[in-house]
Amino acid sequence: MSTVAPEGVASVQEANKALARRWFDQGWSRGELDVADLIFAPEFRLGGRPVGPEGPRESVRLRRAAFAGLTVEVGLQVAEGPWVASWYTTRGTHVGEFAGVPPTGRAISSEGIQLWRVENGLVVEDRNVFDVQRVLSQLRAQDRDTPGPAPFATGPRG
Fold first, then answer.
1. Residue 82: Cβ within 10 Å count
2. CA triplet 65, 69, 75: central angle to 5 degrees?
3. Do the Cβ atoms of 140 and 99 come closer than 8 Å?
4. What is the CA radius of gyration of the chain?
5. Which phi-psi region, left, alpha or beta, contains residue 69 (left: φ > 0; alpha: ψ -120 to 50)?
6. Which residues of 4-81 form beta strands (DSSP E)?
7. What is the Cα 78 distance to its own chain's centre?
8. DSSP reduced 3-state for 122
9. Pairwise CA distance, residues 148 & 138, whole Å
């Protein structure tokens, strides 16, 4: 037995996935921070705290200052109702202080999962988990002990 979602539901879920991909591409990978006003609601909450669009802008500014060439590639995405989950891989070169670690010049890669709630085409809530320990282990490791790169977050898009 198969079920078919009403056309409007599927298109909203696809739009929510596209919204997340847009922020990862334009905001994180390209540093185009003005797009935050088109993606995040004025009452946007990050980890339960109200931060508005300035919260995500500040997160990107800080990470891009610490990691040159920062890119974020979205792999698997799943959407249901107002929620969209994205599994992503981040890569960059450590050129500024990060979590108390001075610049090392090392290339890093790590993964995360972001869960957004979208209302009326704008993100109102973000919950995410990022593997900071993997980044720190890459920055602090002796050359012979440097962990390999994180796999790309890949999978069927849908």
1. 16
2. 110
3. no
4. 17
5. left
6. 40-46, 49-50, 67-80
7. 14
8. strand
9. 8
What percent of the chain clears pLDDT 70, i.e. is strictly above it? 84
Distance CA 23, CA 82 (A): 17
Q: How many CB atoms lie within 10 A of CB 148?
A: 7
CA pair distance 147, 158, nearest whole angstrom? 31
pLDDT digits (tens, 9 = 90+) for 26-36: 999 999 999 99
pLDDT tens, 70-101? 999 999 999 999 999 999 999 999 999 999 99
Task: Please tell me the pTM assigned to this model.
Answer: 0.83
Distances in Å between the Cα of 24 and the Cα atoms of 28, 59, 119, 140, 145 are 5, 12, 19, 27, 30
Closest of 91, 104, 99, 102 to residue 148, by C-alpha: 91
Residue that is written with structure tokens 């001075």 in the block: 102
Contact criterion met (CB below 8 Å) for 17 and 79:
yes
Tokens describing residue 22: 């847009």
